[in-house]
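Take a careful look at the sequence and tokenised backbone pasted below. I need to know what the token row says about the fold.
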Amino acid sequence: MKGALAGALGLSALIVAMGAWLGLSYYLTSTLVVLCALAPFFVDLERRKPEARELVVLATLIALAVIARVAFAPIPHFKPTMAIVMIAGMAFGGRTGFLVGAGAMLVSNLLFGQGPWTPWQMLAFGTGGLAAGVATDALVRRGLVKRGALTWPQRLALAAGGFLLVVCVAGPLLDTCSLFMMVSAITPASAVAIYLAGLPINIIHGAATFLTLLLVANPLLRILNRVRVKYGVLG
């Protein structure tokens, strides 16, 4: 995994340099970099040759995240998908969280529409699952939390962290995609306008993530933790 990440980082730097030299559009260059960021996780999954039961659990988590997006389609921007992705990362680790987030966006866009925004959505939601998994693993190692048994203060802290993750990380990543797609010549004024326009949307999305984590995280984490321990999958 480390070798793949190092290779992706080196290739990203080469793409940026070539993009500047050839005068490629900001969007094309940035999208190629995003694809490089996604590739190591899928390459690592292929190299590990996971068992069928691991793939079943992974597919089930992706399906749950897709259903969460589809079910709330009538409510603009209020989607619990990021919360489900974060819960997957907390239960099975950052690598699985990233794959669930990226996979959920790829699959759900078969319904919502594929386009040049899809890699950015995969990166944004994958990052959410990765961050939740890495943070949870660190807290579990230090004995600060028990996987699948969060107290109310811990649930509040988790929900608040999910809100901030959407508003400060995932949302701005998607706004950056909008910036590259909508603006031919990027200026400070155009960037500020795009990010400010996206802020209310990110707050609504963050609120959905907050409420879902607060209400659903504990019972779902208990179920997923039993699956992880009993069947030894995605550990």
Summary: Helices lie at 2-22, 26-48, 52-71, 81-92, 94-112, 118-141, 152-182, 188-231.
